Each structure stands twice: as structure tokens, then as C-alpha cells.
Amino acid sequence: MSREQDLPALIRRYSLCDRAGERLGALVELLAGDPAAATAVRGRQRVLDDHVADSLVALELPLVRAAASIADLGSGAGLPGLPLAIALSDARVTLLESNGRKCEFIARAIALCELENAEAINTRAESWIEGLARNELVTARALAPLSVVAEYAAPLLRDGGSLVAWRGKRDSVEEAAASRAAAQLGLEPAAPISVSPHPDAHHRHLHVMRKVAQTPDRFPRRPGVARKRPLS
User: Fold this and answer.
1) Is 24 a domain residue?
2) Quick one: which H or E segment has residue 72?
3) Structural domain tally of the chain?
């Protein structure tokens, strides 16, 4: 049986302010009802659980709450970047999306939610030269295999910064490949963290990799190369 949560419960869970609650409510309505939103998830409750709550669960990590600069890669419908920008009003959040129409939707959502701390940029992670070594946190949800996400993120992170990647059920083969890639990128993986964004969520994990050494100058590689020729 489904055990639904409501938006006020989510606000209390993460100790968010009333203004954040209003903005999250507006975002839920937009994602649930706007045909331009890049998601197959429709219906307010499903959007609240599968998108908003799933994004906000990263607030359980102190390194996420403390981040002053966040880059959300392959943001799609603005997830997890928009919910995090709403929750972390003092952080600067850049949402990268290579698809022009998706990027336009994200920009419209930013305007609707009145987010002065968020910006949508129509580019690929490998092409965002302005973001090199400038971000305390990089996020990625449903973007690519972990080893590829690590390659996208490493050049964008400051020394000591972290990548947080959203994943489902653990995959030992994928995790081993990501560890091998991380070793070449100056990243150090931590043990995956099991999370429960909503009552019906199962097998949800956050994978954290910290930047412990300088990423070699040969990164980023040309757009598309990371997927075609993964490091691992």
C-alpha cells in the first residue's frame, strides 16, 4: 500500500522556510502539468515523491548543505538542481543542459519560482570552460554510468569539492569501473549511502566522490568521448 507524504512534511523533514515551501509547491505544479517538462512522471503526488523528494534527500549530507557553488549536470527537467536551489538559497546553482528546449523550460521554471541564485546554461559539461575548477559540489541524476559522470564532474570541481550522483540499486561492476576512473581523475569514492526519499522508495543510493588531487590537464576530453571511450 502506498504511504503518501505531503509537501509540509517534506518541509519539516529538511527544516526549510515557508518561502521554500511555496516555491517547491509551484515547481511541483509546473512539473506535473506543463507538457514541456522533460519528464514522463505526471500527477502531483508522483512528482512530489519521485522528483522533488528524491532531489531533496541529498540535504541529508552535510557537504551538500554547506556547498556555496553547485553545478547540476544534464539537468533535464531541472532535477535535482531546482529543488536544491530552492532549499539552499545562499548557494549559487548552475543547471547545465545541452538540449535547448529543456534548457528553456528550466529557465522558465527559475523565473516562475523567482530563484535569484539559479541559472540555466545551454551547454555540455565538457564544454563549460567557465566552470572549470570552480564548483564545490557537482550533482547528477539519471545522467550516465558512474565512470562517465565522474569524468564529467572532476574538471569542474574545486580541490576538496565533491560529486554526488543519484543511483538506484547498487551494481558492483559499475562501482568498480567508477573507482578505476576516479583514480585517474583525482577523485576518491566513498561508500554509497542508502537513502529513503519517500516511504515507497527502494534501493536508492547517493554516490559521493571527493576531489583529492588535481585532475590531469587532458580532461575534459572532447564532447561525447567520455561515453564512447569510458576510462574504465
Assistant:
1) yes
2) strand 69-73
3) 1
pTM: 0.95
- Asked if residue 1 belongs to a domain, the reply is no
What does DSSP say about strands 204-211 and 187-189: parallel, antiparallel, or unpaired? Answer: antiparallel
Which cell goes with 16?
A: 526549510
Under 8 Å CB-to-CB from 107, ≥6 apart: which residues? 120
pLDDT per residue of the chain (232 residues) written in tens, 0 to 9: 344 569 999 999 999 999 999 999 999 999 999 888 888 888 889 999 999 999 999 999 999 999 999 999 999 999 999 999 999 999 999 999 999 999 999 999 999 999 999 999 999 999 999 999 999 999 999 899 999 999 999 999 999 999 999 999 999 999 999 999 999 999 999 999 999 999 888 899 999 999 999 999 999 999 999 999 999 7
CB atoms within 10 A of CB 166: 22
Of residues 225, 69, 205, the one with CA closest to residue 142: 205
Domain of residue 60 covers 7-228
**Residue linked to cell 567520455:** 226
Look up residue 198 and give its amino acid.
Answer: H
- If you count them, how many residues does the chain have? 232
Residue 117 cell numbers, joined: 541564485
| Residue among 96, 93, 51, 92 at smallest CA distance from 76 | 96
Helices of type H across 91-161: 100-112, 146-153
- Would you say residue 136 lies in a domain? yes
CATH number for the domain spanning 147: value is 3.40.50.150
Q: Is 229 exposed, middle or buried (0-12, 13-18, 19+ CB in 10 A)?
A: exposed
Q: 190 in a domain, yes or no? A: yes
